Structure formats: structure tokens, C-alpha cells
Amino acid sequence: MTQIKLVLAAILLLAPAAATRVLAQSGGLCPDGYNSQFNVNEPGCTLCSAPTDCAVQCISTTCICAPNDAACCTNNPCCQNCPDPKPLRCSTVQCTCEPGSCCSTVCPSSAPAPVSSAPGLALLAAVLVALGTGAVRLAARRR
To answer: Is it true that the peptide bond before 112 is cis, omega within 30 degrees of 0?
Structure first.
């Protein structure tokens, strides 16, 4: 019975890690083999483009404020010489492709995505392993 519990715990711990790895490798948004570029056409959107026969042209608009020009930076926080951190929209580029059917822009839904990080997931896995190990030891002592 203990071996079954250990196998189940291992599966429950490794399945999310494997799914995260697959999503990280594919980007999770673009079809397999497609190129992806983050923060294109709208803040937070991803441009997916075919790997061949797809010419992608991107432009980014830049402006320059005089050093220490607070009024310019207030009106245009994305300009050079303005203090960091800059909003995500400041690094958004506009891209098009030829032919027009070889690329698409994928934007996040309006609902916020849950926040997770690799260190957070590793911490969760470590806590679950510790709890599982403690439960197994406790069960072994009762015998």
C-alpha cells in the first residue's frame, strides 16, 4: 500500500512539471515549428509566424526626451531618457507579414492568468515531497 502511495505522489508531482516543460518548449501559443515573438502589435500579445516563406517586417517607434525633462516623460513615458521601469507597451513593436496568411497575433484573454513561477513551483513540489515523506514515516511508525 505504501508503494502505491509513493508512486501516486511521484506521478502527481511529475505530471505538472512535464506539462510545464512541454508548454515552455512550444511556447504554448504558436503551432509546433512556428516562430514566436512576444509583445507584438499589442502589449502582451505573441506573433506566430511560419518558419519558411514568411517575411515578417517589424517597426518600433522611438522618441527622445531631453535629459531631466519631467514634462516630456510624464506625457511620453516610453521615450528615451525617461526613468525606468517603463510600461510593457513601451517595448511593443508593430509587425506585419507577407503573405498575410503566414502569421497571426495571439493575445491573452481579458481574464487575468494565474501567476506562477519556476521557483514557486519548485517550492510547492518541495513542500509536497516533505509532507508525503512525513506521512509515510508516520504510517511506518504506527506499524
So the answer is: no
Beta carbons within 10 angstroms of residue 46's beta carbon: 20
User: Tens digit of pLDDT for each residue in 93-125?
Assistant: 999 999 989 999 999 876 555 566 777 788 888
Tell me which amino acid residue 83 is.
Answer: P
Secondary element (H or E) of residue 55: strand 55-59
**Terminus-to-terminus CA distance in the chain, angstroms?**
13
The C-alpha cell 519558411 sits at 52
Helix (H) or strand (E) holding 46: strand 46-49
Q: What is the pLDDT of residue 11?
A: 57
In whole angstroms, give the CA distance from residue 83 to residue 70.
Answer: 9
Compute the C-alpha angle 56/38/125, nearest 5°. 145
